[in-house]
Amino acid sequence: MSHVLLSELSPLSFLQMFVTQSVKLAGQQPQEDAACHNHIQILGLTASSCLEAHARQQLDLSGEISRDQYTALVVNIKNQIGGGFAPTADEAGAIRVMNNRCPFGDRVKEAPELCRMTSSVFGGIAARNFGYAKVELRRRIANNDGCCEVLIHIDRDAARDKYGDEYVSENGAIVSRMALEDVTVRVAEKMARIWRPATGDEPSGCRGGPEIVADSLAMREALEAVELVAPTMANVLISGETGVGKEIVARAIHALSNRSDGKFVAVNCGAIPDNLIESALFGHEKGAFTGAHEMRQGVFERAAGGTLFLDEIDSLPLLSQANLLRVLQEGEFERVGGKQVLHADVRIIAASNTPMDKLLAGVGFRQDLYYRLNVVPIHIPSLRDRREDITALINHLLPRLAARYQRPRKVLGSRAWGQAMAYEWPGNVRELENVLERAFLFARGQVIDELGVQLPDEAGLSQADGLRKRRQGAVRDIETKTLRDALQRQAGNVSAVAREIGITPRAVHQKLRNYHIDAAAYRK
After folding, report:
1. Which of 464, 467, 379, 380 minimizes the C-alpha distance to 421?
2. Measured between alpha carbons, how far is 281 from 311 in angstroms, rounded to an integer?
3. Residue 133: CB partners within 8 Å, gap ≥ 6?
4. pLDDT < 50 positions in the chain
5. Interatomic CA distance for residues 122 and 45, integer angstroms
6. Handedness of CA 281, 285, 286, 291 (dihedral sign)
7. DSSP state of 129
8. In 230-271, which residue ranges form alpha helices assigned H by DSSP?
9. CA atoms lying within 13 Å on the CB side of residue 219
10. Res 511: pLDDT
11. Are 522 and 491 in contact (CB under 8 A)?
């Protein structure tokens, strides 16, 4: 962003416009490019160079700055736009600041990805001045923590084992890397190898296997646990509401394990009648009961050498719980009506919709079985508690719907995006998929204006949409003017423009494509 614009915009207007644009562009089109996918970080880094210049002028800072001066600088920036930041005692060498009032109010709870703006502003300034930064958002108002606690690590070696987004100065540009970004890629690649379609004639974007979509901290941490536990034989208990994606996580564990060449067998224990559950799990011999006309293998035999996923494990009757406990303890079982002892060679992953600690308070679930299953617990939060994933899921699902129905791709309009972020999604990811599919099919044009979900305050949402549209237009005008001015000064040299603005050449090219600006027209 050109410094000349600071005379035209206050820091408050400047950053609020960037934030509004970030919320909108976080999901207006399929995210196929890494620079577009991290648009909020890019905008934050762009804003950071201008905000730093403004704050330096106010604080009379020039040249190299100290840690204390850096702290004063970032606190000055954030408080000018309405925050309540204050420095506190450093922690293990990290610069530590806290905030009790978010500059963007309650909006941040509906769009927690806005916290990446703070991360990229703090990290971008630190990387420009110290060469390296890792920003740890330890507590966030967006997550109902009551305050924000931010640690900025500038010593690469000391920050090696710390969690946070990294920022590095490379050839005059700031390169950012989201925390745990790589684990999502690794898990997705391994799942694709296991469940890749057998034929190559599927429509583009319509892959046949399960795919992981994880943008939120909670899901990335869950995938990190998946990666750690998958190579072992430890039992895993996955908890979470219906529709959050527990089976996808179980499939990820299977894909990353040394049993990935074996079968993955999923059983919904709650969908099997009590009088048939024993036969479904362990099989039965011919004549074991009325209707047993032949011997049948149960899921423990069919999953031999692979992974057995027992969903809704909390619905198992007590007798079946006792037999399952025997399998876990002794590794053996018998078919219904049989006398031969069979050995179970399976990896067991269980899942429950009900928090298991609540079940243990009653008499419906055996404690000894619980402790056998709950060796490694993995909790998948509801979609309303990880709203960063809403944007990522929508951008992932819309191209798949276009491929499935062989129609042109569609995007959400402003009203639909507002509905998606404000709705509570009681059915979680499964409900989001169904709502999007219905909206995709019934939208007449390429823009989906209505999701058809009921919100508590439709009138308030419409007013907010109008304000966001006006701000979005202002931000678009600012970015376009900035790019054209920079191209004019740099004679169309994109690399030079990137150095001036403080982002990568790839990001500049993406912006030029978005705004239909031809850099060649400015070359002398």
Report:
1. 464
2. 12
3. 122, 123, 124, 126, 127, 152, 153, 154, 166, 167
4. 1-9, 22-37, 180, 197-208, 459, 461
5. 9
6. negative
7. H
8. 246-255
9. 29
10. 80
11. yes
